[in-house]
Design a protein that fits this description.
Helix 1 runs antiparallel to helix 2 and helix 1 runs antiparallel to helix 4. Strand 2 and strand 3 form a beta hairpin. The chain is of the alpha+beta class and 181 residues long. The protein has one domain.
């Protein structure tokens, strides 16, 4: 009876050692590669937009294709902060000071310009009317977050009975360097 119990324990340990642990390592590595690929895609998109001074449908589609290529589902949030400079007055007298304010435009506003209403007159993808333009000095940022559970999270939940799921979150942005055409 003791030998049978030892045999069962040895078999369970072998299964864990030769099947489950390598599967978890492969899943962890796959998730890390997805994280790196998503980070690279976001950085390339933001740097392109900051350099051009506008969001073009072609560039946004490339971002979405590269994120889709990771095998995960992502929520993409775009943010544009338009820089405005306002003079400061004391009553009717100018005080030789200015305040800088930023006015935000977000994903819905930006994508409405990039992807106009399909019921209206069709506009070619490379037409400048579909570009969301910005000015030098504005701020542009992209936030990407994975949705759902990765294989690594599922395996970890099965093995350790933990309910934690840490999504892939990437935020990248900066100041626009060029004016839109």
């Amino acid at each position: 009876m003791v030998d049978a119990f030892k045999a069962i324990v040895v078999i369970v340990l072998l299964v864990i050692g030769f099947m489950i642990y390598p599967a978890m390592r492969v899943a962890d590595r796959t998730e890390e590669l997805a994280r790196q690929a998503a980070g690279s895609a976001v950085e390339e998109f933001v740097d392109t937009v900051r350099g051009k001074g506008y969001v073009a449908p072609i560039d946004y589609n490339i971002l979405l294709r590269r994120l889709d290529g990771t095998g995960m589902v992502f929520d993409v949030q775009l943010e544009h902060l338009k820089k405005t400079i306002q003079p400061v007055y004391n009553g009717s007298t100018f005080t030789n000071r200015f305040t800088i304010e930023y006015i935000g435009s977000f994903t819905l506003d930006i994508l409405d310009k990039v992807y106009p209403d399909p019921s209206s007159t069709p506009i070619a993808e490379d037409d400048e009317r579909r570009y969301y333009g910005m000015q030098a000095g504005d701020l542009f940022q992209v936030r990407v977050q994975s949705k759902g559970q990765s294989l690594s999270s599922r395996l970890r939940n099965i093995m350790f009975r933990s309910g934690t799921d840490i999504p892939i979150m990437i935020t990248y942005g900066g100041m626009v360097r060029s004016e839109a055409p």
